[in-house]
Structure formats: C-alpha cells, structure tokens
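**User:** Here is a favour to ask of a fellow structure person. Please take any protein you like and set down a full record of it. No explanation is needed for now; the record alone will do.

**Assistant:**
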Amino acid sequence: MKNLKTKDLVLCALFIALIAVGAFIKIPIPLVPFTMQFLFTMLAGLLLWPELGFISVTCYIIIGLIGLPIFTEGGGIAYIFKPSFGYIIGFAFGAYVTGKIAYSGDKPNIKKLLIANFSGLLIVYLFGMVYYYLISNFYLNSPIGVWTLLLYCFILAVPGDILLCFIGAFLGKRLIPVLKKSYY
C-alpha cells in the first residue's frame, strides 16, 4: 500500500462517517433492514480505490465493534452474534472487489462501474446470507430454512440494492474524474 497522505485519511474518515449515517437511513423489512450503507461502501471502493476503500469500511467495523452505536441496531462486540453482521463483513470485501474491478485495465466507464458494483453486491450478499444462516442455525438455535433465507435476506432486499448499484455507477462516473484531478 502506498504512503497515506492527509487527503487519503480525510477521505477515509468521510466514508466512515457516511457509512455510519447510511446505517440509520433505512427501510424496515423483515429480518435484514434495507439501509444506505451499501451505497456508501460501494462508493468507498469506487472513489478511494480498492485498498483505501477496504480500510475505511474495516475502520467503520472496528469502531462499531468497540462500542460506538454506528451499526443499524447499535454497536459493541456482541454485534458479531447478530445474524445480519455478515453483511457488514461483506461490505469491506465488497468495497475492495468493487474498487479492484473498477480500476482494472482501462479507465472506469459506466459499464465497468456497473459490473464492479454488481460484483461487490454479490460479495456482500454471499457473506451476509452465509453468516445469517450459520449464526441462526448453529449459534442462536433459531433455525432458518434456505427458502426463507433466500426470500427475506435476498429477494426482498436486493431490488433496492440493485437500484443503488445504478446510482453508485452514475455517481462514480461523475466523481472519479474530480477525485483523480485533485490527486494529480
């Protein structure tokens, strides 16, 4: 990783704050609430590049686990036992994958940004659903079937996140040149 500049640290802190705010912009649906966190974690990958995007989301996770109530339902180390915590872990890896795909090869265009965003979305849901299943069935002793998991943790939640993928690609296309210009 390159040496971090003050501007990098400020952008990282900005995204930590945006992700925290995004946790409280939510639409309640059963089991896993729909929030704006995914949009801001996706933009972290697009605008901060893969490594710094991953670092900013990881810092958000650490701050929440330390005890600041910045997750959708609070904070603290016990949050790792909430079934929805897998989505939060997925945000970090999703941000990294989003940034990695967006900046592979030629400069990012709208098609590449959409592919990057949907790839990050798949990562988030993969982590989220597997974690939800494992915690519910093996720790909480509150069994959830695969169909119920797919219905509540994917089918009901993913339409909003698909829309966020398009919004993120549009914002990324507009903001990436602005950030690149300020770096060089």
Notes: Helices lie at 6-22, 37-66, 85-102, 110-139, 146-155, 158-183. The mean pLDDT is 93. The chain has six helices and two strands.
